Structure formats: C-alpha cells, structure tokens
TrEMBL record:
Span of domain Thioester reductase (TE): 2-154, 162-453
Record keyword Lipid metabolism present: yes
Coiled-coil region(s): 76-110, 324-358
InterPro entries per UniProt: FAR, FAR_C, FAR_NAD-bd, NAD(P)-bd_dom_sf
Organism: Dendrobium nobile
Name of protein: Fatty acyl-CoA reductase
C-alpha cells in the first residue's frame, strides 16, 4: 500500500550525538541506503530529499561526495569495510566477554577514531557523509535532494515534528504520511506518535485550525508504522503492510540518526551507516517512488579550512588520503571486537567503553573528528554507491537551532552545541569557553531546514540524479561566537536565573580560551588543583565536604566534556558553500506558494533572533 501511494520520500532520521560507531553507521549511513531502497519501490515517488562537510575553513561548496571519497585525500573510504570493521570489533569484544558498557564505549571511540582518520571531526558527520555517498551511488534514476543543515541543537527526532507540522498545515491536500516509529508493535508506535509528535505545543496552531476535527484529520492522514532502520525492510515484519507501503509510497524522507559524537561504534554504524542503506533498499522496493531525501550533516566534511563544496563522497573515500575506507571491514572489525570482549567475559560497561573508544579511534584514523560524522559520511557513501537510478537528495544542515518564525518561534527539542553552553551558563556552571570568539558559528533555524527540504522535494521529484544541499548561514549571513556570547550575556542580565536555594545566579561575560594548552593550564590552576585540595581536606574531615566536592567535580568534568566534544567546531574555520541551495531559492522565488517556505538566512537579524527567540526558547523548552 505504501509503495502505491507514496510519491515523496523525506529522510530526516539521524543520530546527531557522538554516537556509537555501529549505531551511527546503522542510522546515518545504512539508514540513508534503506530509505533510498524503499523509495525506489514507491510507484509514484517523485523525489527523495538529506550534513557532512567536516571541519574546514573558507567557503564550503554544495557538492556531492564521490562514492568512497574521504576528506583525508590520502585514504579511500570503504563503507563496506567500515561495517565489517565494526562487526569484527564487536566480535572481539564478545569473545573477550566485555560488558555492555565496555562495548558501548569501544563503539563510540571506534567511531571517533574512524571519522578523524578519514578527515571528519566526529562520528555523526562521518556516518552522515557515508550515507550521502550511498544515496548518490545507489540512487539510479531516483530524483535525489540532499539537505545539509548546520549545527543541530536537538536530537534527530526534533526535525520530524517540525516537518510533519509544516506539511500538514500548508499542504492540507497531502494524501498520506507514513511515520516509521521505533516501537515493538503497531499500538506502541501509535502511542509514541501521539505522545512525541502531536501532543507537542508545536501543533497548537494546527489544532486551532481544525478544532474538534483535528483528531479525525490526523487519523485519516498520518499513519504510524512500527519499525527500525537498523534492520532490513526497516524492521517492518508484517509482509502485507510492507507490500502496501511499497505500493503507495512515492517520497521517502530519512531523518533517523544518532547524533552522539562519542556513540558506541557498533550503534553508530547500525543507525547512521547501515540505517541509510536499509532506507535506500526499502525505497527501491517502492513502485511509485519519485525521490529519496536523506538528511545528513554538513560536518561530514571533517575539519577543514576554506570553502567546503557541496560534493558527494566517493565510495571508500577517507579524509585521511593514505587510507581506503572499507565499510564492510569496519563492520567486521566491530563484530570481531565484540566477540573478543565476550570471550574475555567483559562486563557490559567494559564493552560500552571499548565500543566508544573504537569509534573514536577509527574515526580519527580515517580523518574524521568523531564517530558521529564518520558513520554519517559512510552512510552517504553507501547511498551514493548503491542508489542506482534512485533520485536522491542529501540535505546537509549545519547547526540547527530553534524555530525562527513558523509556526512557534523558539520551539526546540533536545539540547545541542550552543544550547549546551546556554544551559550551562543559565545554571551558573560555565564561565569560560574553549574557542575563538571570531570563529563563525554556522547556525540555521530548524524551520528553515524544513522549508528547504520541502522545496527540494518540490523541485527534484522524478529527476534521476543526485543533489546535495548544504543548509547553512556562514556565507550569506554569518554570526560569530562573540555575537552569541554578547547576546547570552545581555539576555541573562535582564532575565537572571535562580538556583534551587533561591539565590540569584549572577550574569558574567564568557572568558574565551583560544588554545588547548592555555585551556588545560587554566583548568588545572583554577579548578583541578583546588579540587584536589578539597578532596584531601574531605578525607581528613571524614567526608564533611563530600557534597561540595561532588558538585564542583561534576562542573569541572562538564566543562572538560564540552571542550572535548566541541573544540573542533569552536575553532572551525571553514565556510559551507550553498550555491545549490541559492539556485533552489531563486527557482522558487516566482512560486507564490513557495513564499511560505522561506529558507534564506539573510532574513535573520541575529541579535534579535538570539535574544528574543532562541535563548528564551532554550530556557522554556530545555532548562530542567
């Protein structure tokens, strides 16, 4: 039924954290492939609309990856080899009887290692890049649009409510929306859809529009499907349901991903790499499919300077040009490592740690900074390599922030990047930040990313090619970290926060620390040494200061954690080329309806947006 009815496939699924390499590969890389394969089965599919450029300086162009292309030009990125590597590593861990926690850690470290080895800064953008490669390689004649938003401030599911709300509000004649929900059965999938999508304040405008008929409208238009992109056929076990989907679906959209920068390598591979593949394979079964849209990340490009082009990865291309990225080898590595851990009777925690370490190790070996971007890059590679004639669009956003205008300004779900800094500042936990205040923070509001996705679907349905769009602001309307710091300070001076004991938290300006050696020296002198003194005093006084020590130690570890995660981006000197997106904007200018889908960053006045929309939204929706 889905293959017969679906005409537009949009993939925004992704894990955007420093995720396990296996999970990131499955969602961001293989997930893109699976969405494409599904879209190919949709008989009416017109278009498949998908962030992955890495860390570069200058203008980053809107160009697709060649299959196997790594940002480290000395390496070839073999996506199949990366998948094998993960499986081999997991096998090793199991043979070592590693704990689940140890496997998780090993998978995260492997993702980071592989990402950085190939030239990407983290597992997320690496696996998203591989997802784009798979889409470009496998799409065949499937019309494809790849959206590349900038830094995502929310978990991958954040894009889904905004996308669904926009489609239902401005495209009331849409026949059906099928939402793949990770759930054990249809009942649980429906409950999750109701609780995690339609129960949100974001849908209040739509509820007011339809009044008492809202529930009826939703039940006739939106259908939840229990499944998971880490499995073939998206984990849809009901063969009759699969056949129906393959007959009705015409547009496949993949937004699934794990965005954890330090995710377990096995988890990150499963979600970000294999997940892209599974989506592509499913899309190919859709008899009416018009396109597959896969949401990746602009940071699959790795850590670079200058202009970063909108180009696809070559299959097996690593950012480290001395290496070839064998995705199958990465999968085998993960399984072998997990087998080793199990044979060693490792604890779950030990396996988790080992998997995280493996992800980081493999990502950095291949040139990516973390497991997330590494596995996302492999997902792109699989999509480009396996798409065939599937129309494929890969969207690469940069840092996605709260809704700018439509329909609930400030709405956001899930803290990422600058939001973690805002929340830490609001709680009085952060006084210094590692980074250059003159570096550009490539922000893009979530509703602009969604508008670009919908525009790409409109423009690219039934075009049997691969398109990559980097959705960013760094070229056309840049905002620096110094501007963000100024706005955060101004907001909290006027809107001071209070601690749990009722005491007011004083607003102070950030202290930027511009190099890692200075940062570590600063943290040692101002925090680590005083904490060691407090720890010794606590021992002599039989635990009298245990609570105080734990509180300050937690704050210290939090700052170190933020520095480790975001240093590649707070020193990022690249700019993302968005020439493709600009051409799309110009093409849509004469379309009256497309005025509802603004995605021009020039329209943003950053001080006003940050002080009056984004920061209040972060405080309202994210501060616990």
């Amino acid at each position: 039924m889905l293959w017969e009815e679906i005409d537009i496939v949009v993939n925004v699924a992704a894990l955007t954290l420093y995720e396990r390499y296996d999970v990131s590969l499955n969602i961001n890389t293989l997930g893109a492939k699976h969405v494409l394969e599904f879209a190919k089965h949709a008989q009416k599919s017109r278009c498949f609309p998908s962030y992955v450029a890495g860390v570069k300086e200058g203008i980053i162009l809107e160009k697709p990856f060649h299959f196997g292309e790594a940002l480290n030009k000395d390496l070839y990125l073999d996506i199949e080899g990366e998948l094998r590597l993960v499986e081999d590593r997991k096998k090793e861990l199991r043979e070592q009887n590693s704990t689940i926690e140890a496997e998780k850690i090993a998978m995260k470290e492997l993702g980071i290692q592989r990402a950085r080895m190939y030239g990407w800064p983290n597992t997320y953008v690496f696996t998203k890049a591989m997802g784009e490669m798979l889409l470009g390689h496998l799409r065949g004649d499937m019309p494809l649009v790849i959206m590349r938003p900038t830094i995502i401030t929310s978990i991958y599911k954040d894009s889904l409510p905004v996308f669904v709300e926009k489609v239902l509000r401005v495209q009331p004649n849409v026949k059906k929306l099928f939402l793949l929900v990770r759930a054990g059965d249809a009942k649980l999938a429906t409950e999750r859809m109701q609780n995690e999508v339609f129960a949100k304040e974001l849908f209040d405008v739509l509820k007011e529009k339809h009044g008492k008929d809202f529930d009826s409208f939703i039940s006739k238009t939106v259908y939840s499907v229990a499944g998971d992109i880490i499995y073939e056929n998206l984990g849809i076990e009901d063969c009759n349901l699969r056949e129906m989907l393959w007959e009705e679906i015409d547009i496949v959209v993949n937004v699934a991903a794990t965005t954890n920068f330090y995710e377990r390598y096995d988890v990150s591979l499963n979600i970000n790499t294999l997940g892209a593949k599974h989506v592509l394979e499913f899309a190919k079964q859709c008899t009416k499919v018009k396109m597959l849209l896969h949401v990746s990340t602009a940071y699959v490009a790795g850590v670079k300077e200058g202009i970063i082009l909108e180009k696809p990865f070559h299959f097996g291309e690593a950012l480290n040009k001395d290496l070839y990225l064998d995705i199958e080898g990465e999968l085998r590595l993960v399984e072998d490592r997990k087998k080793e851990l199990r044979e060693q009777n490792s604890t779950i925690e030990a396996e988790k740690i080992a998997m995280k370490e493996l992800g980081i190790q493999r990502a950095r070996m291949y040139g990516w900074p973390n497991t997330y971007v590494f596995t996302k890059a492999m997902g792109e590679m699989l999509l480009g390599h396996l798409r065939g004639d599937m129309p494929l669009v890969i969207m690469r956003p940069t840092i996605i922030t709260s809704v700018y205008k439509d329909s609930l300004p400030g709405w956001i779900e899930g803290a990422r990047t600058i939001d973690s800094i805002i929340l830490g500042y609001a709680k009085g936990d952060i006084s210094c930040i590692l980074g250059d205040p003159e570096v550009v923070s490539d922000l893009i509001p979530g509703d602009m990313v969604v508008n670009a996705m919908i525009s790409a679907i409109t423009a690219h349905s039934n075009q049997h090619s691969e398109f990559i769009y980097q959705v960013s602001s760094s070229l056309r309307n840049l905002v620096k970290y110094s501007t963000i710091e100024k706005c955060v300070y101004q907001y909290f001076v006027k809107n001071p926060q209070t601690r749990s004991d009722g005491k007011e938290i004083k607003a102070n300006k950030f202290h930027f620390i511009r190099t890692m050696p200075i940062f570590h020296r600063y943290m040692l002198l101002h925090y680590r040494l005083p904490l060691e003194g407090l720890r010794l005093m606590n021992l002599f006084l039989f635990g009298l200061f245990t609570q105080q020590f734990n509180t300050y130690w937690k704050k210290y570890k939090f700052v170190i954690h933020l520095a480790d995660i975001y240093a590649p981006y707070t020193f990022f000197k690249g700019s993302f080329d968005d020439a493709n997106l600009e051409r799309l904007r110009k093409a849509m200018m004469n379309n009256v309806e497309m005025k509802l889908f603004d995605f021009d960053p020039k329209h943003i006045e950053w001080d006003d947006y940050l002080i009056n929309i984004h920061i209040p939204g972060v405080i309202k929706y994210l501060l616990k």
